[in-house]
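[audit] Reproducing an earlier prediction to check determinism. Same input, same settings, fresh worker. If the tokens differ from the archived copy the diff job will pick it up downstream; this log only records the rerun itself.
[audit] input (158 residues):
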Amino acid sequence: MVETTLSGAQHHILTNDYASEWMGIEVLKLDDGHATIRMHLRQEMLNGFGMAHGGMIFAFGDTAFALACNPANPTPKQAAHITVASGVDINFIKPAFQGQVVTAVANRRASTGRSGLYDIQIYAVSPDEDASDPTASDPTSGELIAEFRGRSRTISKK
């Protein structure tokens, strides 16, 4: 399954997340209300124009959103609930291309009761830049390619 690359901790929601595994998503950082992830854009993630398919960028942002919304190590009380998307918007700013490394940085902006608001910025770094080492530079140092805003709702786990 998907492993983290920095902390050694794994988020429990990735255990059976086969989409994130296929996408090759790596977790770089997890905190309460925050997640930073990355992936390498592969040929099968491209659309007919030779750029990253919007659905791939959306799915990538959605994974960062889910990781920021749900605690990595839930208490027994928290484990009885899950936080899911109640709505999302994405704005594609620039295209990304095969070989680039994309990074998503998700942050909680507000949380009241069972509802939350999260902003996720997605950046792309060219393969000639050193994106293989997540500690080498700020994850936001690439070009901003998309802004994702998610609205969350905490519900009972069924």
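[audit] rerun output stored. Observation attached for the diff report: The chain has one domain: 12-156.
[audit] end
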